[in-house]
Specification:
Length: about 190
């Protein structure tokens, strides 16, 4: 059974805007339901104006603030069905950062993501650094080990990919593990 749509004044914008338990925002000035935009994290976002000052709000947070009790003062709002477009109050819950990060299939979806897998593989690339002033080279079993020797992953990676010539006094190259050092060319 579908719940009825309930409207409440938006806190701090009383007499200007109303929010519904279904995730709709109504402008009392324009006498219409407002259009939202999708932000870069794929959440619905709305711009509310008061005294010529614009404030941006995530719609799901507005719904939760007005319709979902938060007795423990938890900081984040979770979509129970993992659908960012479903901002119904019945689909939202207050939670901790940790709970939200591990909720549902997020971990699986992240590890299945192609760019995530590729970035993990790049961090496992072996590299060798030759000191500019001579001396013994440093061999890294993985780019992520760069910090152990006082280097940065980004600095080593930029040298290996040809974006930089040196990083902290070393010339870096990818090492294919067969004793042969190769510089990886862009678009190769």
């Amino acid at each position: 059974m579908e719940t009825a749509e309930i409207w409440k004044d938006v806190e701090g914008f009383e007499g200007l805007y109303k929010i519904s338990n279904k995730g709709r925002v109504y402008s009392l000035y324009k006498h219409k339901v407002m259009r939202w935009k999708i932000n870069n994290r794929k959440y619905r976002q709305i711009a509310l104006t008061k005294e010529e000052k614009v404030k941006y709000y995530l719609v799901h947070r507005l719904v939760a603030m007005h319709f979902v009790p938060n007795p423990k003062g938890l900081p984040q709002v979770n979509h129970k069905d993992e659908n960012k477009d479903n901002n119904d109050a019945d689909n939202l819950e207050w939670c901790t950062n940790h709970y939200n990060a591990l909720y549902g299939t997020r971990v699986e979806r992240t590890t299945m993501n192609r760019s995530y897998r590729e970035s993990r593989q790049r961090m496992r690339r072996k590299a060798v650094g030759h000191p500019v002033n001579g001396g013994d080279p440093i061999y890294l079993d993985a780019l992520k080990d760069a910090e152990l020797y006082g280097f940065t992953r980004t600095g080593v990676k930029n040298c290996c990919s040809g974006k930089s010539k040196t990083h902290r006094g070393y010339v870096w190259q990818y090492n294919d593990g067969k004793g042969i050092v190769k510089r990886i060319k862009k678009n190769a």
